[in-house]
Amino acid sequence: MKLYLLKNGVNPRRVRIFLAEKKVRLGVDLPVEEFDMESAGHKKPDFLARNPLGTLPALELDDGTVIAESVAICRYFEEMIPEPVLMGRGALGAATVEMWNRRMELELLLPTIDVFVHTHPFWVGRRPQIADYGAARREHLVARLRWLDGALKDRPFIAGDTYGIADITAQVALVTARGALKLAIPDDHAHLARWFAAVSARPSARA
Hints:
single chain, 4 strands
C-alpha cells in the first residue's frame, strides 16, 4: 500500500489529518510519495498510469487498485480502522456526517479554492483566472462563515458532539482561507472562533 500526496495540497491535508486521528504514521505505517506543483510529477506518465486525472491524493493498494479522491480514501480507512469513528456511527450518524461534510465542501472548501485560483498571483499563467468570479466567491465564503458561526452555537463540532470528517474539511478550508486569502474569522464570530481554536489544538492539526 502506498499513499500519494501533494505538498501543501488542500485535499491531501484532509487525508493527513484523518489518518493522524486514526493514529496512522505516514512514512512508518504507510509509505508515502509526495509530489510538488513545481516538478508536477503527478502529471507525468508514470503517475497518470495510476490515476489518469492526475489528481492527488491517491491510494494504491497492494493489488494495484488505486483509490483517488480524499473522501473515498478516508472512507477506506474508516472501514479498515473503525475507531475512532470519524464518519458517523449508525445510519443516522453516518448520514448526518455526510450531510455536513458535503456542506463544508460546497460552502467552504470549494469557494476557498475558487478564490485562491482566480485571485492569487500563484495561479497566474497556471490556470485561467476570472477576477470577478473570484470576488463573487469570496463574498459567498464570507457569508457562509457567518452561517456556520450560527450553526455552531449549540454544539461543539460541525456534525454534533464529536469531531469528524466534516470538521476536517472545514478546518483545512479555514486554514487555507487565512493563509492564502488573508481571510480570518471575524471577531464577532464567537462560536466559529471557539470551534476553530478547539480543532487547531488537536495533535492531528499539525499533520
